[in-house]
Amino acid sequence: MSSRRSRSRQSSGSRITDDQIIDLVSKLQQLIPELRGRRSDKVSASKVLQETCNYIRNLHRQVDGLSDRLSQLLASTDTDSDQAAIIRSLLME
Amino acid sequence: MNKYNPPRMNPSSLRSRFATRFLRTLSKINAQKPTSSSSPTEIFRRYRRIKAAADKSMAYSVRSRRTWSRAMLWKLRTRPCGRRSVKTSTIIKSREARKTRHEKQNKNTTTTTTTTTGEDGVVFGVEADELRELVPGGEAMDLYNLLDETAHYIKCLTTQVQVMKKIADFYSP
């Protein structure tokens, strides 16, 4: 094994290869709108992780904002009768 | 297709499971409206419950198939929401305190450190630690699982945002 491999994390059990990590990183890259479509050898792994963190924080913020919006909207409505309509329109998408 | 129903998405997809659960919880939250339902405290309380409901619904829809959903469910169960209005600044402070403690710990142990060199020889230890703070249950994961769980977590988060957006748009005047 090359010295690079031996510097890898001492795994508990199965040997995780660098290639597997690289595969996962490029899979992540495809999920992030900022980096999607860019060649994976042009984006460093640490950039992918950085952007992943930013993206997750962004999504968290969106959930917060939407929860806030919903809490204000729900103040004045009754939800039961609309549920079926919402679900149907959601699923139709 | 000979189906009677109009063509629709897979009823057991994550999206519809989440949507159904979340809507059900929303009705429950809405049904508990007190008389002063538009006071800021009440709205804030409802916001916390809705947010917890969104996370819970998502975690339940994933069930225990994923480490992050298990961690999230555990967290939601052991921290009662609604009554205690923890200020966000306190949460952020304690999170940062945990992070610095965590980083100090990582420097000593090798089993949890994420110093793996990628193809370009860059060590992404710090970013991985940051990611650990963001993904539920990430503290205990090794790098491989962390990356794997993160991908799934992101997919679920985007579904959550999409569904919540649709619901909010539906109720918007």
TrEMBL record, chain A:
Answer yes or no on keyword Translocase: no
What Pfam families does the record point to? Answer: bHLH_ILI
Output this protein's name: BHLH domain-containing protein
Keyword line: Growth regulation, Nucleus, Transcription, Transcription regulation
* Phylogenetic lineage: Eukaryota, Viridiplantae, Streptophyta, Embryophyta, Tracheophyta
Q: Which residues form the BHLH domain?
A: 5-59
Q: Which InterPro entries match?
A: bHLH_dom, HLH_DNA-bd_sf, PRE
Where does the UniProt annotation locate this protein?
A: Nucleus
The record, for PANTHER family, names:
TRANSCRIPTION FACTOR PRE, TRANSCRIPTION FACTOR PRE6
From TrEMBL, chain B:
Q: Which residues form the IBH1-like N-terminal domain?
A: 12-79
Question: Keyword annotations for this protein?
Answer: Nucleus, Transcription, Transcription regulation
Localization terms from the record: Nucleus
Principal location class? nucleus
UniProt signal peptide: none
Record's CDD domains?
bHLH_AtIBH1_like
Read off the InterPro entries from this record: bHLH_AtIBH1-like, IBH1-like, IBH1_N
Region annotated Disordered, chain positions: 96-118
Family annotation (Pfam families) = IBH1_N
Q: State if Transcription is listed as a keyword.
A: yes
Recorded hits in PANTHER family, A to Z, give: TRANSCRIPTION FACTOR IBH1, TRANSCRIPTION FACTOR IBH1-LIKE 1
User: Under which name does UniProt file this protein?
Assistant: IBH1-like N-terminal domain-containing protein
